[in-house]
């Protein structure tokens, strides 16, 4: 719980600075303009967001802290490009859930390492990451394909929650 409190404190500070300076709004609007000018919208944009979220997941272990940092920028940015906030969250969760197990900053990573060392005394961080990398990529590919199918067939995400605006 102590880790969460520290992360929540710094995430709160970052969000407050973003609000105070309007940096989040500036980044969201400028980013949306840039993405629109290079014609990166729709499905390619969602796939790019999945890649970015998965990469960031390797450096920030807490899902809630990561979302607290990413949401104020990417939700309005993608909203300006007609991507529903619900779809932004789902794309984030696809990347986050798939790459958690290969992130050494995951809260449970030491526990996973201890369990692995029970069966292989030489197991280390590299052993866990290299072992789980194939599974992580398989999950990422499977969830991404499912999201692509969902997007191509325009299946609603829930009651009153479409994919686009």
UniProtKB/TrEMBL annotation:
GO BP: p-aminobenzoyl-glutamate transmembrane transport
Species: Tetragenococcus muriaticus 3MR10-3
Example GO molecular function: secondary active p-aminobenzoyl-glutamate transmembrane transporter activity
InterPro entries with a match to the protein in the record: AbgT (IPR004697)
Keywords: Membrane, Transmembrane, Transmembrane helix
Name by which UniProt lists this protein: Aminobenzoyl-glutamate transport protein
Membrane spanning stretches: 38-60, 67-85, 97-116, 128-153
Key word Electron transport present: no
């Amino acid at each position: 719980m102590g880790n969460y409190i520290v992360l929540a404190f710094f995430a709160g500070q970052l969000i407050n600075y973003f609000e105070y300076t309007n940096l989040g709004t500036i980044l969201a609007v400028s980013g949306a303009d840039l993405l629109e000018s290079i014609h990166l919208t729709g499905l390619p944009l969602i796939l790019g967001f999945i890649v970015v979220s998965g990469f960031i997941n390797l450096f920030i272990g807490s899902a809630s802290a990561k979302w607290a940092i990413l949401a104020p920028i990417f939700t309005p940015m993608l909203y300006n490009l007609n991507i529903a906030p619900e779809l932004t969250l789902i794309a984030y969760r696809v990347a986050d859930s798939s790459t958690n197990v290969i992130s050494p900053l995951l809260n449970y990573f030491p526990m996973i390492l201890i369990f692995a060392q029970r069966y292989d005394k030489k197991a280390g961080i590299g052993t866990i990451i290299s072992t789980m990398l194939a599974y992580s990529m398989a999950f990422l590919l499977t969830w991404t394909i499912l999201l692509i199918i969902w997007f191509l067939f325009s299946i609603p995400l829930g009651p009153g929650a479409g994919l686009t605006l």
